[in-house]
């Protein structure tokens, strides 16, 4: 990341706004807020999140744990809300970024906005700026093998959002972004495949590191030294500086994102969609299945475990996700809880599933990330279903606001969904962020 590049990106981030952006951008910001808050409220209900919150030491502060009655310090809110947002693998993502820009930016932006008393319009502008910065850096970044996309490039977008909230000049914003480029995690993808819970903290770590980067710039200690050229460009991979600013202000990355309907890694979604399509069209029973072959792109092939031991490992297992889809007809969070991993019907199908690379499918990346599922039945019949991309992607059956509401209603209930909408409407009306978040109230007490 050349110094001129980071300054150009910072100049854009300091001036872009939701109100002046095209209507599709405004619609995506609204959908992202509703989806993210609702998904995080659902994530708070997991045993894993509750155990972490119980032991997390935090001083009282101005930043909300979403949907709860207590407010904590900004770093604690950033971490815990980010964990809640990603723990069910239902958070918004972007295939061109190969990761989750919104989930890196939103928790820390909301926490800082409450701390400084910002209004809803300022928050939305900061979120948009942070998303665009994060997604653009990620799009131009090509990681070394085995790097997970949480906790590294997203810190730059998070710093852009927090700096924007604090009214930074272009120079200060660039300094904060440069500092964030020196505060990155070398996060191993193997942790997700193995189901190691630490992976669920990396989004929060990026947010906390963004706070550090902003404080460096705020104190007058910031510099612009092209730090990302060393971290992203050599240590963690390679980066194309020209790609970062290509079509800046004309191509909006947020409009190319996806919203999830399955509680699993996005790489598992095309196999799940194909399995569901085959199940619906052929009308066979799960017990009739003798073997399953999933053919897909190179990024998805490592997700091949047939014996996941944790929720996270199951959400990163194509055999488990396909087995759940064929057995239950949907991939809802309860099918990934630890007790459900030993469901005999699911285990049987999991053990009969193989994942293979298909060169033709792989060649369509990054625009398409498809899959083909071949199912062999006990009758000798073979059923094949293929999908070009995941349902919910901006370019393939994107989820409408109604569909997102349906998803969230099934996760958190009608009462808490209504509270999420009230909070987002308050932000759109430019209420103080702290006031808007009070609409969520203690949503665990809402009578469904």
UniProtKB/TrEMBL annotation:
Check the record and name the InterPro entries matching this protein: MmgE/PrpD_sf (IPR036148), MmgE/PrpD_sf_1 (IPR042183), MmgE/PrpD_sf_2 (IPR042188), MmgE_PrpD (IPR005656), MmgE_PrpD_C (IPR045337), MmgE_PrpD_N (IPR045336)
MmgE/PrpD C-terminal domain: which residues? Answer: 262-413
A Pfam family annotated for this UniProt entry: MmgE_PrpD_N
Superkingdom per UniProt:
Bacteria
The segment(s) forming the MmgE/PrpD N-terminal domain are: 8-222
* Gene3D superfamilies the record matches: 2-methylcitrate dehydratase PrpD (3.30.1330.120)
Per the record, the similarity remark reads: Belongs to the PrpD family.
Report what the protein is called: MmgE/PrpD family protein
According to its UniProt entry, this protein's organism is Microbacterium profundi
Lineage runs: Bacteria, Bacillati, Actinomycetota, Actinomycetes, Micrococcales
């Amino acid at each position: 990341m050349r110094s001129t590049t980071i300054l150009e990106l910072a100049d854009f981030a300091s001036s872009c706004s939701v109100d002046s952006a095209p209507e599709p951008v405004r619609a995506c910001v609204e959908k992202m807020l509703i989806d993210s808050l609702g998904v995080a409220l659902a994530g708070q209900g997991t045993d894993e999140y509750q155990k972490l919150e119980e032991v997390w030491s935090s001083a009282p502060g101005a930043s909300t744990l979403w949907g709860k009655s207590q407010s904590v310090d900004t770093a604690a809110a950033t971490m815990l809300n980010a964990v809640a947002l990603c723990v069910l693998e239902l958070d918004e993502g972007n295939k061109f970024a190969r990761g989750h820009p919104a989930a890196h930016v939103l928790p820390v932006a909301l926490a800082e906005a409450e701390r400084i008393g910002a209004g809803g319009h300022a928050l939305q502008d900061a979120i948009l700026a942070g998303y665009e910065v994060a997604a653009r850096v990620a799009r131009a970044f090509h990681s070394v093998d085995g790097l997970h996309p949480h906790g590294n490039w997203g810190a730059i977008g998070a710093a852009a959002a927090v700096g924007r909230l604090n009214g930074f000049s272009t120079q200060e914003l660039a300094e904060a972004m440069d500092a964030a480029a020196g505060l990155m995690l070398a996060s191993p993808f193997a942790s997700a495949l193995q189901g190691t819970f630490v992976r669920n903290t990396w989004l929060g770590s990026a947010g906390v590191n963004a706070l550090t980067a902003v404080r460096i710039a705020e104190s007058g200690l910031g510099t612009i030294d092209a730090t990302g050229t060393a971290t992203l460009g050599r240590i963690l991979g390679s980066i194309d500086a020209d790609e970062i600013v290509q079509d800046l202000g004309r191509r909006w990355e947020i409009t190319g994102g996806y919203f999830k309907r399955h509680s699993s890694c996005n790489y598992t979604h095309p196999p799940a969609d194909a399995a569901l399509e085959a199940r619906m069209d052929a009308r066979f029973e799960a017990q009739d299945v003798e073997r399953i072959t999933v053919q897909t792109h190179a990024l998805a092939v490592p997700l091949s475990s047939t014996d996941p031991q944790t929720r996270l490992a199951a959400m990163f297992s194509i055999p488990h996700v396909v087995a759940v889809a064929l057995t239950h007809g949907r991939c809802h969070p309860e099918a990934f809880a630890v007790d459900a991993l030993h469901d005999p019907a699911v285990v049987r199908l999991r053990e009969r599933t193989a994942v293979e690379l298909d060169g033709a499918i792989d060649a369509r990346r990054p625009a398409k990330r498809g899959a083909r599922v071949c199912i062999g039945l006990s009758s000798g019949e073979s059923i094949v279903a293929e999908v070009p991309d995941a349902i919910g992607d901006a370019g393939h059956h994107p989820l409408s606001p109604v569909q997102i509401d349906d998803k969230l209603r099934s996760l958190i209930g009608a009462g808490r969904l209504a509270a999420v909408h009230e909070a987002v409407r308050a932000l759109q009306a430019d209420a103080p962020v702290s006031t808007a978040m009070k609409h969520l109230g203690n949503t665990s007490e809402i009578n469904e």
